[in-house]
Write a structure and sequence with these properties.
4-stranded antiparallel β-sheet; about 90 residues; single chain; Alpha-Beta Plaits; alpha+beta; 3 helices
Length: about 90
């Protein structure tokens, strides 16, 4: 099952993102659940959130994956959405 994780950073939290980025990227690579991932950017190119496509068994697995993300542990995100997604192209 493909799940889109769309997370928006808390305002002014760029330093939290930068400080936690290596642990976050290591987590992305280690779990085997990530199909695609990258930061959301504002109009100046500054990172303001994340878009991650998870390939997991079900929504519960996506919720557990999201809860274990180092960014979540660091309190980076203001909002997190998990939405079933269908790849067309």
């Amino acid at each position: 099952m493909l799940i889109a994780l769309i997370a928006r950073d808390k305002p002014g939290a760029l330093q939290i993102r930068l400080d936690t980025r290596n642990a976050h990227v290591a987590y992305l690579k280690s779990t085997g659940a990530v199909s695609q991932a990258g930061p959301l950017l504002d109009s100046t190119g500054e990172m303001i959130g994340s878009l991650i496509i998870l390939d997991v068994e079900d929504m519960n697995a996506a919720e557990e994956w999201a809860a274990q993300d180092p960014y979540a542990h660091a309190g980076l995100f203001e909002t997190v959405e998990l939405i079933p997604w269908k790849k067309v192209i």
